[in-house]
Each structure stands twice: as C-alpha cells, then as structure tokens.
Write a structure and sequence with these properties.
Blueprint (H helix, E strand, L loop, with lengths): L1 H21 L10 H45 L1 H31 L1 H15 L4 H6 L2 H48 L1
Helix pairs in contact: 1-2, 3-6, 4-6
Length: 186
C-alpha cells in the first residue's frame, strides 16, 4: 500500500515538474525533431524510469546483502565454489551491459516510429478525424504509412536481435557450463 501511494505521489510530482518546464521552452524547439524526441521521451518515460531506478536500487541492496551472506558461507565451506560464482557473475555483468546498450540504442532508433504509430492510432480513434476517415481515402494512406513504419521498426529490432545472438550464446553456454562444472566440482 505504501509503495503504491509513493508511486502515485512521485508520478504526480514528476509530471507537475515537467509540465511546469513547458512554459520555458521556445516555440522553435517544437520544430526541432531532435528536441521533440527528447522532450516526448522525458514526458512519457520519466515516471516509470524513476520507479525502475528505485526498484533496481532496492534489489541491488538486497542482492549485496544476500551475496555477502552467501559469499561468507561459501568462503568458509569451499573456496573453489566462490571462484566459479565470481566467474559466472562477471560474465553475466558483461553480457547484461552489452544487452542493455543494444536495447537502449534500439529504443532510441525506434522512438520516432513509435510516436508516429501513436499519432496514427490517435487519428483513428479521435472523433474529430472520423468524418475525414469515412469520407476520404486517408485511412488507406495512414494504414500504408503504418505498415511501412512497422516494417522499419521490425528491421531495427531484427538487427538488434542479430547483434545479441553472440553475447547471449556466450552467456547461456558459459552459464550452463559453469553451473554444470560447479555442481560436479562441488
């Protein structure tokens, strides 16, 4: 209950802060696609990113506590097992870092596509566009642009998946090998 209440308060304060900054933005900035991408990302992502940072911090503190306890136990019982755990953790951290960088680049590359898709979606469900959609062929044009936009996004996601193939293969191979070897050695 307290966490939900804190999230609502955080969301309200963050959105209020961002909305108060809008009056200080030059009108020219809205015509700059780069600025507009950053601005729309700030408005849409600020809440969940802040909450994710908090959750990650809490999980990190919990993980450090568990790691210290387990590390002490393993150090007392078998030092070889500690070495296996450390190697596995290093591989995991490296692969996770590579993966996060690739997905962040993908997110940024597809930002305009996602915003454009939202625009098309909004056009189809808002009442003020209903007459144009019913009386003209604009819906066919929008659907064509939507399909093209989705294809562009799929290409970016496919390229990201391809670039993740090697790091993920290394991670899963080493994880299984280390777990199996660790179990055998232990």
């Amino acid at each position: 209950f307290i966490i939900v209440k804190c999230r609502v308060i955080y969301d309200m304060k963050m959105q209020t802060f961002l909305y108060s900054k809008v009056k200080h933005i030059d009108m020219e900035s809205y015509d700059n696609p780069e600025f507009y991408d950053r601005f729309s990302r700030a408005l849409s992502d600020s809440t969940w990113r802040g909450i994710n940072v908090f959750n990650t911090f809490v999980e990190f503190i919990q993980s450090v506590g568990v790691s210290i306890a387990l590390g002490a136990y393993v150090l007392i019982t078998d030092i070889w097992l500690l070495g296996i755990i450390i190697v596995n953790a290093i591989i995991y951290l490296v692969v996770t870092n590579i993966t996060n960088k690739i997905w962040f680049k993908t997110y940024k590359k597809t930002e305009r596509n996602r915003r454009f898709n939202f625009y098309i979606k909004r056009t189809f469900y808002q009442q003020k566009y209903a007459a144009e959609i019913k009386t003209t062929n604009v819906n066919e044009l929008l659907l064509e642009k939507y399909d093209k936009n989705i294809d562009e996004m799929e290409q970016v996601y496919h390229a990201s998946e391809k670039s993740l193939l090697l790091p993920n293969t290394i991670y899963y191979f080493s994880r299984n090998l280390i777990e199996q070897a660790g179990s055998y050695i232990y």
